[in-house]
Design a protein that fits this description.
InterPro entries: P-loop_NTPase (IPR027417). Among the domains are: about 70 residues, no CATH class; about 140 residues, no CATH class. It contains 17 helices and eleven strands. The strands form three sheets. Strands 1, 2, 3, 4, 5, 6 and 7 form a seven-stranded mixed sheet that branches. Strands 8-9 form a two-stranded parallel ribbon.
Length: about 450
Amino acid sequence: MNTQNNQHKQTIPFPDEIIHLETINKKLDLSIAETNSRVERVNYEYINSKKYMTDYRGELDPHEMFQNELALKQIDRTGAFAVEVWDKLMKIKESPYFARIDFQEKDEQLIEKIYIGRFSFLHENELLIYDWRSPIASMFYDYETGPAKYDAPIGQIEGALTLKRQFKIKNGILEYALESSINIQDDVLQRVLSDTSSEKMKSIISTIQKKQNQIIRNEKNNTIIIQGVAGSGKTSIALHRIAFLLYRFKNKLSARNITIISPNKVFGDYISTVLPELGEEPIYELSFENIAQIQLEDIIQFESDKDPLETKDIHWAKRTRFKSTLYFVKQMNVYLSEISKTLFVPKDYIYDELIAPADFIKERFFAYQSYPIKKRLQLIADDIYHRFTSRNTMGYKVPRPRTILSGLNKMLKMKSTIALYKEFYKWLDLSEMFVLPDKKNFRMVRCISLSLSSCSI
């Protein structure tokens, strides 16, 4: 018995689906033509308005010129929106939808046919295709045929899926259709994975699994950690979650509010097409080195990357290998834990007749142990200032917090991060591995930039 034939009732296009796709294509063509006419009309209006302002610039009073500039900006916005709509319609035309579910709401006779695609398609006030991120589309990912439900704005809607189909449409042509009462996504996934025509990461909206869908649509947790082996789809799920959140909270969230922290530029380039493919703007992408460089650009200069296979500097290669070990990180954490207890030596802070005892300063220092050392000293300086002002019954001159902070900094055994880093190598008994060619060219270590934040000076 052929198991696959039992699982998949049909793997060739259904006649009714061919007819439906032809209908959708015709309506898409109409919408594209209408949008194209709108773009041309707006472009004509823009050119004429611009020409009018140029020809009569000397004759227009300031108020009229201002009104014309406002009108021109409005025309420009209208045109930009029309172009976006046209661009989206062209993407829909290429592959209008990838799935269909038939849903019968509880206690209702009507069975609704729901086609699901990358984008929604509304024609003459009729929603013909649902966006994959819409609430009702979640049933495609979460249920097989049988009882099903979804969360709508008005509350939870219960019912049953009576049919579930999946399609591959390319350039407006139906290549295959699958229907099953059990999970059909394994076969579809194999077909998708066999397509290696692109070196870029692709969207996976047609093959998202139930548990992946739960991660993508999770609205209860502010922080989500996705764990998995290499190649298991962690990054892809994260990108699709971004697309969902941008859709779900479109009035509160935009691409400008999101940053992707990636390991390197190659990886950033690899994932760069996923969100635009899903109709979203590209997301700002940074590496940890970028972040460190932005934060420290006025303090240190960055050594350009070297290829470990090409460089002839064996000492550099040795240092790089050492800094890449787990041992290096563990030893750094031990060192930071120990040095934080002895780095600061509290003494009486005396300003004229005013005194802040060493015991008070020590107590405040450890009270703020959850903060980096520099921040701790700032907070202690504020505490001393308030102590002086509240107890200054004799009217002595009270130093400003900045002056007090200067005195506290003198109680540090080491005054800079570089000095601390150098001492770290001495503590490891590896002083020869500390290299500092000049005052402004500090060899950046990715992990130390983060680790020292808890013991920053």
